[in-house]
Every structure is written in structure tokens, then in C-alpha cells.
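Q: Start with the shorter request: fold the first protein.
A: Done. Sequence, then structure:
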Amino acid sequence: MMDWTDRHCRYFMRLLSPSVQLYTEMITAAAIVHGDRDSLLRFDETEHPIAIQLGGSNVEWMKTAAKASAEVGYDEININVGCPSDRVQSGEFGACLMARPDVVAGCFTAMQQAVPIPVTVKTRIGIDDQDSYEFLRAFVDTLAAAGCERFIVHARIAVLEGLSPKENRTIPPLNYERVLQLKHDCPELEIVLNGGLQNLDQIDKLLQQVDGVMIGRQAYHHPYFLAEIEKYLRPEWPLPDRRAVVAQMIPYIEKQLGEGERLGRITRHMLGLFGGQPGARAWRRYLSEHAFREGAGVGVVTAALDMMPIAA
């Protein structure tokens, strides 16, 4: 979800679901140690509960990044051991670290000792030819022995040679059974399943067998799905009106534009809001064609909304 779940995206998604836990895009520990820390760690208070995903293998850098994240108020720190991109591999973090569980355990221990909030791990079920339950279990056992209690498991292996990051999200087949077996064998651990979840029926069945689910691409491309999940979890909660959500975004957009942000950097996350509704294509097209123009302001958003049928 790199370059997807930025702070603008998370602010928008929080309007659709008050209680789901939000995760940042992966941020490298090196960037926090050597870069613009304030900008990288920035988030809005409305985003709680929110977890930051950190990538890295240098123990001291990961510890420093964890402390900085806790100090600014994140609710959880997640070590990303799932990203398969070449850039991530060259930096020795992401999915390639599944082959080095002791390194991940060392980072976890240093980080958890340095912060008062939970440190968790997001992982794949395997990498390359290491495609077995035994490999996954050995990785998890090493981290559990170090004290990790919560694992988010993407139910696909990562193919580090020969597949692009995009292909790694779809081509390796899903294997939910391996994740379910992990939960069965390790009932004391909190296991959250990730990967390919697209409807409430899937979620309902899986929540009877694991402790939670993580939704990525489906929630991004069809953001109103988050509202439907919230309604499933809390039947008494009223589904939000899509138009009202846009209206709630206007003051935020105005504030961000005043600070120098470009409109398109915000509205790109809103393109799928009216998915499946009459006029959805016109909404997407108008925002896509006008939001990145020089000087584009909130008038672009209101004009796009005016193109939607009132019932949408």
C-alpha cells in the first residue's frame, strides 16, 4: 500500500468507519532517522486507532523510529516483513527478512523494550521456494519467543525473483488454510488474516476462525466497503451518506490546500467513493481530469458532486 494509505487517504477513510484500525503506508526506519521526521510521522488526531508500518533491519534505526512513532502518538508499531519490491529487498527489509527471523526478532525486542505500545509483525506465508507451513511456523515461533503476540499474515507467498510487486499481490495463490492452521496451532497468539478479501461473507466466516482481518486494495478502490464493514460490526451504527462524507472532506481539503498541498493528492483517494452508484463514472472522470490542474481548488470537488444524481 506504499503511496496509497497516506494521511489524506486515512483521514478520508476514517469518515467512513469510526472504529476500524488504520495503517500507514510502510515508512523506512532510515527515512525517519535521516529524513524529515515530522513530515513522515504526521497524522491527524481523528485517525485513531492508527498503526505505523516500519521497514528496516538495522536494530538501532528501528528502535529510534519506534520511539519517535510512539512519542507522536501512534497506537501500534508494525514491522513490515511482507513487502516484496526490489527496492525493499536491496534495503534488506520487507519480505526477504522472512529468511532471517533472528534479525526480525532482534529488531522486535529492541523496539518493544523502547516503547509502551504494542509492536506487531506483518508477514507473508512464505517466500520463493520456502513455501511450507513449517517455514511459516518457524518464523512465527522465533518472533513469539521474543515476545511478539500479534501477527498480520498475508495469505500468499512472496516471489522475490521474477515477479513485480503488483504481480505479487495477485499471482501467488491465496492459501487461507495455512493461516487458519497457524491460529489453530497457536491459539495464544493474535492472528489477523490479510489478502484477497472482497465481501462481508468472507469476512464473517474468517472472523469465526481468526482474530481479525486486514483489508487493503478492496477498501482502497471501493472505500464505501469500509462503511459496510463498520455496519456489519456495529448493526446499530447508521451508514453514512456519501454526499455527506464529501461535505466533511471540504474543510480538510481547504486546510491542506492552504498549507501548500495539491488537490489531486487528496482527491485521488476519493475516486471510488461512489462505486456502483449512478454517476460514479462522471465523478471519477471529472476529478481525474481537473484535480491536478494548476490552482485546482475545492470548486473541483463540488462541481464533481453536482454531476451526481441526488439519490447517490
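Q: Next, the second protein, separately.
A: Sequence, then structure:
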Amino acid sequence: MQTPVAASAPPDPDPERHPNWLSRLGDAILTTDSRQRRTLSLLLLAALVTATVVMLLIYATMIGVAQASHIAWLAGLFGLFMVGFYATIRSGLNRRFDDPTLALPQVISAQSLIATGYAMTGPVHGATVIMLSLVMVFGMFSLRSTALRIASLYTVAVMGAVMYWCVRHQPEYYPARLELFNFALTAVVMLAISQLSGQLMDMRTRVKTQKIALEQALTHIKEMAARDELTGLPNRRRMMNLLQEHATRHARGGPRFYVCIIDLDHFKNINDSFGHATGDAVLRAFARQAEQVLRNTDMIGRWGGEEFLLLLPETPPGEPTLGVTRLRETLAVTAASPSLPDLRVRFSAGFARYEDGEPIDQAIERADRALYAAKSAGRNRSVVL
């Protein structure tokens, strides 16, 4: 007897629906909100840098140049600082503040802890100075120029106070001349970072402005590519896309629709008698009237020359063909051009009801045959095929 073989499970067509444990862990730590995730990622990067510095300070205690109790106390403060900000951001409480990133409080807290560490590390206190610059570099990517200047001034002020205290109470490790040099160096670096931050912010503002302008230009170009320049109506390409979209929607259970082609009667005579400028004005006036009279669900575009194509869904209100009838009645009492109050526009129309599964070109061809029949029957009328 042959042992049945278990069928292997088919591969998941969408593996992103079943993230692995690493992705789930990342979502649990950093949340799935993109802004909160970005803020937490920056905080955890700062925590990694801080942990590295703490490891170096622990090494300093091992070689006897720093007191273990001081370093332990400082490491605890750093840990409390990181956990506090992480809990605030992860819980969403940060959203209540004007700056949800809490960048300025983070920088102020970090600089305060570094200043405390400067006073605790005795012979190796100079190594902590570089951390001041590192924190400010992080701040450059999160803080506005004004906030970064505030952080820079705070750093200079707090370091000046700490250095003065150290000179007074631990002169053997903090000689006055050396501390004056360190203070001057700190002030210069903070000033330079503040200036660079302003330039970086200006660059980011220019890039953002250029990006917005580019997006607006692209939107305008797309709009121009889909619109007829004379009438402002959708052009032939846009109408073909709309027809195809409605055909696809109908195949999925959406409403059926009519395709209608309108041709202005004796339009050549208008051009020959009154000039092309008047002919253009007539086309624009027809387009405006059509947009006002047709239903909101109806769509009209310029098909070419004096021909227009309409997409008329079979949706309320009213029968789709009635809008064209109202348009004909409106044009019969409306001047085609302000300069020619007695001129009236008449048109012939051909309708074709879209059939299930037929190509769009075929529906358009039937509407064109219906238009030809309306022309042959004497113009100024509609024919439905």
C-alpha cells in the first residue's frame, strides 16, 4: 500500500501580509506610525551612541582614571533619560506638544547630562566635550534654527557654569587656563554649529519649495495633457481613458453607459461667413452650455474639430439621453456668440448603448454610425443605435 504524500502548501502570493518575527518586533518597538517610527528611530540611535560612550567611561574606571560610583550614577541618569523619552513618544503623549519630536527637550537634557559627566570624569573630562558637538549634530536634523540657537546658548551657559565650579572645587583636574581654553573651544563650536544649522535649514526650505513648485508644475502639465486648449474640456485621449475606466467598472458590476457623438451642424459655414475667431468662440460657448446643462455624472470632451464625445452613465437623475435634449433646447434660445445675437447653434447626435464585453472602439463606431444617420435624416436631431 502506497503511503500518501502530504501536499505542500502553496507559496504565499503576498508574503507582506505575514511579516516575520523581526518585522513584528520592529513594529512593537517602533510602532507602525511612520512619523512616530522616525522619531523613535532617531532616539534609539542616540541611545546607541550614549551606550557606546558609557562603555568608554566604564573602561575609564577600569584603568583608574574615573570613579565607578560616579560613572554608575551618570549611566543611570542617561538610562532614565532615554527610557523617559521613549515612553513619552511610544505612548503617543508627545503628540500633545507643538513639536512631537521633543527634539529641544532631548537636546537640553542630553547637554545637561554631558555637563554633569564633565564634572565627574576628572582626568578624562576632556573626552566628554566631543559629546556636546555630537548631540548638536543630531539636533541639526530635527530642530529649527531658532531652537538650535537656544540649545547652543544653553550649552555654552551650562558648560561655563560647570567649568567655573570645577575650577573652584577640583583645580587639580580642572586648571583654570585649560578650562578657559575648553570654554572658548565649546563656544566657538556651538556658534559654528548654530550657523551651519541656519544654512542647512535654508537649504532644506529651498529644496522643499522647489519640490512643491515641481509638483505643481507636473500637475499643471498633466492637466494640460488631458485638456483641450480651446474649450477647456477633456481631450480625445482623456475621454478614451474615461471610457475604458467605465467599461472596466461595468464589467465589475458598475452601471452601463451610453456613448454619444455630437457634431455641430453647418459649422463650416460659420467659419467661412464670420471667420475662425467666431468659430472658436462658438465652440467655447457650446462647451460652457454643455457643462451647465448636462448632469453631474455626465462627461463631455472635445473629440476633434466641431465634434464632441459624451459619456452618459445610466444613473439617476433622469434618462441619459435627456441631457442632450435639454442642451439642444437651451442652444435654440441662446446666442452662439455675444457679437452675433441672432446666431444659433444646432447639432446632430448619435447614441450607442455600451454592450457587455464589447471593445470601446466598437461602441464609438456605433455612435458614429448613429451620428451619420442623424445627419442623413436632416440634422438637428438624435439617433440611438
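Q: Describe the second briefly.
A: Residues 22-218 form one domain. The mean pLDDT is 86.
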